[in-house]
Amino acid sequence: QFKAIVVRCNPGQIKADGGDQVKFDGAMRELRKLGIQVWPSPDVMEQMGAKDALVKVANLNIGLEDTLAYYTEAEFAAGFRKTMAFQPRVIKQNRGSSGEGIWIVKLKKDNYCSSYGERSCDNQEVLILMEANDNHAEEHTVAEFVEFCVNGRNTKSGKWTSKGDGKYLEGGKAAGGQLVDQRFCPRIVEGELRYNMAGDSLVGIIHKKPKEGGISAVSGTGSIYTFYGPE
């Protein structure tokens, strides 16, 4: 017998491994009804894990004011073409985990406009794409990238080496289908710091740095982890 469960499954991880996220969440909710604590609960994960939270904090000092969220193909096709013409971007799916469906996107010709809204990319402009789950890179046109993000692998989206299947808007907003569009921050290559806390006490710090030439510090991508004590 047990009194509590600590869930260590990222959103999307269960589905990626062949499981059913809906059934898993349902089982966790049933356990909570029986008085067994589940940390974190599915309802908390759904609120914390939604990428469009980045839009809600866009105007705070921890956010980026030009962060956008797309819930339909029309919104994404129009908005992305405009932001992409101005500066390198990061396009993030809401589902998935460990960097899958998070793309760092740059124009191959580096021909960005000088001010936002001055122009929009045309369908045949070529993009350099790097996916954060494994730091692999590939090239596609704007039209192919939009098609892959919306409808997945088909003749219009071309040939992809990504392990994912695209279709990031599938099911609509109610089902978690969304894409978030943020500017690319070059200092990401310096890595990130993770502070581990037990209550209000610091117990350790982890510096997660991407491998040379990469942008993702996700485990399994060759990233370097350095551990420090609380002192």
TrEMBL record:
Pfam families: DUF6815. InterPro entries: DUF6815. Transmembrane segments: none annotated. Residues 190-231 form the DUF6815 domain. This is DUF6815 domain-containing protein. It comes from Spumella elongata.
